[in-house]
Amino acid sequence: MEETQAHTPEESAEIRAAKAAWQVVKEAFGEAVSELDANPFMPFFEVLDRDRWRDIALFLRDDPALLFNYMACLSGVDYPDEEKLGIVCNLESLGKHGHRIAVKVKCEREGGAIPSVAKVWKTAEWHEREAFDMYGMSFSGHPDLRRILCPEDWEGYPLRKDYEVQETYHGIKVPN
Amino acid sequence: MNTGLLLPNSFPFVMSTSLNAWSDALSDLYLLGLPLGLVIIAAIPLVFIALYALTYGVYGERKISAFMQDRLGPMEVGKWGILQTLADILKLLQKEDIVNKSADKFLFVIGPGVLFVGSFLAFAVLPFGPAFIGADLNVGLFYAIGIVALEVVGILAAGWGSNNKWALYGAIRSVAQIVSYEIPAAIAILCGAMMAGTLSMQQFNLLQEGPYGFVHFYLFQNPIAWLPFIIYFIASLAETNRAPFDIPEAESELVAGYFTEYTGMKFAVIFLAEYGSMFMVSAIISIVFLGGWNSPLPNIGSVALNDWTSGPVWGAFWIIMKGFFFIFIQMWLRWTLPRLRVDQLMHLCWKVLTPFAFVAFVLVAVWEIYVK
Amino acid sequence: MQELGTSEHSSLRVTPQGKDRVLIEKDLSSEEMVLNMGPQHPSTHGVLRLECKTDGEVVIEAEPYLGYLHRCFEKYAEKVDYPAVVPFVDRMDYLASMNNDLAYCITVEKLLDIEIPRRVEFIRVLVSELNRIASHLVAIGTYAIDLGAFTPFLFCFRDREHILGLLEWASGARMLYNYILIGGVAEDLPEGFMERTREFVTYFRPKAVELQKLLTENEIFVKRTKGVGMMPADVAINYGWSGPMLRGSGVDWDLRKIDGYSVYPELDFKVCLPDGKLSDIGDSLSRHLVRAMEMEESLSIIEQCLDMMPREDGFNPRAAIPKRIRPKAGEVYGRAENPRGELGFYIQSDGKSTSPLRCKARSSCFVNLSAMKELSMGQLIPDLVAIIGSIDIVLGEVDR
């Protein structure tokens, strides 16, 4: 039991910090961001107005109260129930405040585009390419949006839930 | 120095022994009107080089590196793996000789040949002992330096003819490196030539002969001689593309440099040429500074170590041992040091070695003229 | 003098020579050469391909191309259940499989909220730190070989062999261990393992000093790496660098301290940072130095683990493993300090299935490598090799 007891107050401190950070964003952007989902694992909020995502990203990075200078991860996600694709960004204020938060941005499943934050966090450049490669959402304003892991002429987006693997690739049978 | 008494004509006065007579007899041997004896004599250095490259060059390097790296090295073929090189040669002979489609076929084929010939022509003037020298040219040293430079042509032909970007990089680097390093090397060797007053390889040996063995060597005859000695040794590493100056064939950068595209025997020939050059520079440095085939052991009173260890066979033994010693140092450096960068290499050549070589040149000249 | 007929790469210069003669000179045309480095190249550490635009020895631009080792980890992870992901995780950074397992398992355990026996925690830290030393030995050894020094490489592999032997003894495999499981470890440590580990620590300490003398203090090595591939701290953070790369830029950031997962908070170790005496902070040499220092720290962590590890007779390391692993619905981002930096897993669970809905691996090498393009601009080809080596990529993790 020592382990869990040791963890509980720390996690709640993490959530408190995330709440405070979200408060700052909420005050600045109002309706563009959703409420904070203060779950114990990964507190996150969603960007509702995705056109403002890049402004929010810049604000998150540069506001003296936030200083989320480090993007730990950017994951593409498929939401088949909502007919949407999205990204989840795990941000952290490295060496400054030490707080963490996750941000979600969603777009339409077909032909959707999310503003690129590759210029805000350079980490995002390759991660956005990967999300594009695997899910097919576009990132507007990305400097070099190409497939990164799959071959350039691969059909379909492999990590979508409705992905059907192509039968042959350059005459080679693709194992299923 | 009493060695001034030894004129070329008075040679061979002590050691014109049975071996010399034997070789004279051999050179007169004609078979069906062909000078077979001369061919045999000419083949001796080649046989030596082939044997040396097989045994010491390849097997020795592998065993020495294994020893330095805390491992066993080849152990499977024969006792202690001594037949490993033969197995390698068999493998190389069986390998397909690939000439890639878009290569410049003429240059591609001629490259290793020029490299090999350039490396082995120098052996003509190498005195293997008081009684054996292929051609005692009066400009032997000059010839040796000049003819080794022919390798550059072979390297460039190989690198350009391969039609491979890595090979081209390797060739260009190699040419730049060898041509640059010939300057400090030649000046350092000139210091030796100044001390001797001759360019004949055999004369160098005769001039460094004496009852006190190593005391008569030029390295110990002149207080400044260590400077050209070290300069020449460093430059010779670069000339033979050995570590830490192996940037033309830097395997981590250029895959294999100018011989990236070579397979089978062509590859083996390039390899053989490299080991040939290694021995050649080692022999030159030991002839110019360390007495060549002279025994380094001194006569101490009645214990005439020097006399006991002199003679035609001993001469061959000493020069080969001295050569092997320097090859061992080359191997030692190779398995210890990382590789320099291209610009650092050129910096070392033009801004460090060349000025110091000139300084050594002047100092040796001053010593030879005014002090000695 | 006037210029006529300029094409893209060459120009004709026409100079009047007297009354009715002109001299036409054609400049030697020069153009950039595209040089493909990899995917089969000795110093790209696997199947990375760099498309370099070169001007002589100078690399104007190098564009990395990935995916040659893409094995669809994320797709597989969605198809199999949670414990079955572990062998796939092993194969990501195949030089540090234990650390990968640890990162994945603590992430899933966060979702499951289960209690791990103390001895299991110590075993995990012990094997992870052993694996960290093994991984750094490969990193340092291959870096040496990139710079042309062959012997340090073999010294590193000789010492790594002892660690592989130990880990093989514990797990049964030499490289891909599948040892750390969700909720426990596969087997208890074998009898005599701790004594052997202690022997290894006493054996390895002088060997690390020897390695330092042979490589780190070598004049040529310092000349080749000092000031090469400079990365200022703020840019490094913006690129998302982590681990020894980020510490090489002088940022005091170690997830073992920051997150304090497993039993690391109880252990006494320091975060290794370059002091700037031998190297310029942020260059390739700093990163190398951080790795060399971390091996020392790992040795001290191993010793502490051996001292502090609780001994139990008849200990069952699988006791806490749940019968059926089906986490509550939710999302989690868990991470651990790998030898190459922050290895994170973003796992999404729907609460119904026994396999993750989404399992994204945040690979440290992938992120570290993304700075390659910027680092390589205007460098010499040998420096490019030195930079790739200092990033210490494992293509298995870059491509997943």
Task: Sum up the structure in keywords.
heterotrimer; B: 372 residues; mainly alpha; 63% helix; 2% strand; globular; C: 400 residues; Cytochrome-c3 Hydrogenase, chain B; four-stranded antiparallel beta sheet; three-stranded antiparallel beta sheet; disordered N terminus
What is shown here, in short?
The complex is a heterotrimer of chains A (176), B (372) and C (400). Chain A has 176 residues and is α/β, with parallel strands linked by helices.
Give the class of chain A from helix and strand content and strand pairing. alpha/beta
Strand content of chain A: 15-25%
Which structural category do the helix and sheet elements of chain B fall into?
mainly alpha
**Estimated radius of gyration of chain B:** 21 Å
Order of helices and strands of chain A: HEHEEEEHEEE
- Treating each run of at least 4 consecutive H or I residues as one helix, how many helices of chain A? 3
- Quaternary structure annotation: heterotrimer
Strand-and-helix sequence of chain B, N→C?
HHHHEEHHHHHHHHEEHHH
Main sheet properties of chain B = 2 strands, antiparallel
Within the CATH hierarchy, at the fold level, what is the topology of chain A?
Beta Polymerase, domain 2
How much β-strand is present in the residues of chain B?
Answer: under 5%
Contiguous helical run count of chain B: 15
Number of domains of chain B: 1
Helix content of chain B: 55-70%
Largest interface: A-C, 37 and 41 residues
Numbering strands along the chain, what is their spatial order in the largest sheet of chain B?
Answer: 1-2
Mean pLDDT of chain A: 83
